[in-house]
Amino acid sequence: MPEGDTVWQTARRLHGALAGRVLTRSDLRVPRFATADLTGRGVLDVTPRGKHLLTRVEGGLTLHSHLRMEGAWHVYAPGVHWRGGPTHQIRAILGNTEAVAVGYRLPVLALIRTADEPDVVGHLGPDLLGPDWDAVEAARRLTADPARPLGEALLDQRNLAGIGNVYKCELAFLAAASPWLPVGELGPDVPARLVATAHRLLEANKDRPDRRTTTTRSVRGGGLYVYGRGGRPCLRCGAPVRKDESGDRITYWCPGCQQGPLPQSPPS
């Protein structure tokens, strides 16, 4: 599931394959930009911003993409068979003499002026993996609406950019708070600790492309504390981890370790 660390890894792969090289192939398979041709332009850089990817090319243009739930960019050497999915799922192809980047199932793909990047990412809060990370501002935004449930506030990219459903569940567990607890009911020091933990975890996991982990080395069977562990024993207290499927995303939590309200619908 693409989250801030996954997007950061994707940007690093794309930057390594494309930056500093001239495009010899360009194919944007979305109706609005199907006739756009970037061949002959050099790629300047590929920059992640929260869950957004900004591929900047010469001439003041930026290819803006967002992975959301299903999107992915794959990088291949010339002549290698593409394995990212069927051809009809390809939304973008960018290639040079040494590599080709293929974007599959991209729900957002737009060619914009680089000067207009604030129009698509300017609303984002402090980027957990960005050079402008501001923990104080992130904590302020997270608690700006005291009545808002913690899980919703964590997922709102306007508060802090880079958290997805996995980290939402894991951070709520690490804060010992129910995902439905209003942020105004968190202890006075909890928001600052929460955003610091989020920053630490994404920094640690951005170099672990094969296995995201939020547990400490001392936790047996570690990896993740609650996400994906519905019905299995909590790694801390042994109580069954619960899951709620009433919203757009499944939420996992441990009722033994996390204090606060339960979801309105009966959890499984």
TrEMBL record:
Pfam families xref list: Fapy_DNA_glyco (PF01149)
Identification of the protein by name: DNA-(apurinic or apyrimidinic site) lyase
For whether the record's keyword set contains Transmembrane, the answer is no
In terms of PROSITE patterns, this protein maps to: FPG_CAT, ZF_FPG_2
**EC numbers for this chain:** 4.2.99.18
Q: Which InterPro entries match?
A: FPG_cat, FPG_N, H2TH_FPG, Nei2_N, Ribosomal_uS13-like_H2TH, Znf_DNA_glyclase/AP_lyase
User: Which residue ranges does the record assign to the Formamidopyrimidine-DNA glycosylase catalytic domain?
Assistant: 2-79
Q: Which family does it belong to?
A: Belongs to the FPG family.
Keywords for this protein: DNA damage, DNA repair, DNA-binding, Glycosidase, Hydrolase, Lyase, Metal-binding, Multifunctional enzyme, Zinc, Zinc-finger
Supply the source organism for this entry.
Streptomyces solicathayae
Which major enzyme category is it? lyase
